[in-house]
Amino acid sequence: xxxxxxxxxxxxxxxxxxxxxxxxxxxxxxxxxxxxxxxxxxxxxxxxxxxxxxxxxxxxxxxxxxxxxxxxxxxxxxxxxxxxxxxxxxxxxxxxxxxxxxxxxxxxxxxxxxxxxxxxxxxxxxxxxxxxxxxxxxxxxxxxxxxxxxxxxxxxxxxxxxxxxxxxxxxxxxxxxxxxxxxxxxxxxxxxxxxxxxxxxxxxxxxxxxxxxxxxxxxxxxxxxxxxxxxxxxxxxxxxxx
Length: 242
Prior knowledge:
By secondary structure, the chain is α+β, with helices and mostly antiparallel strands.
């Protein structure tokens, strides 16, 4: 199984990783490390894949999965959490709680405070990104934005993420600099979701932004992609405190 370890200036007590698609037991079209229980895969396969993730990443507890809806709600997690929260971002200050988001083209974003007291994860599709999911996540931190590190994970790349003019207009209505993230493609545009996220984070005051700009759409052997395949699995991006 392949796992990506973020290259960012996180404190020593912060652990994080992002999964790829290899190393699990699910059959096609969820092959093979599908971690999503909502995509049609056999529940037993998903459970075994999640156990494999626990072992490989040396997680202190099972990730607290979210019911993601492409919105902007942020939930604060603790070890006593029972129900699956309906949210697209999560934050914790408790060691041993694993924040997680699932993606298959959308942008996963990790956050940690420079003092190592809080960590968070956000699921940023274009709708949530435009609506403010990253800003809402930052607002939950006790530390100011300039003391937060952010990491942007693999997502659909700027040579594959085709969107309509209405998407470009929605971003530009909030930040005119967003024009730099869109390249014309006939009567549509190719969008750079990493640049859009970076712009939003920097406008909110974040000074430390790192990224792994691997394309989930083009790297078929490495990543699930909903746009490419339709029925497919989900990767997870996780962060926790020791």
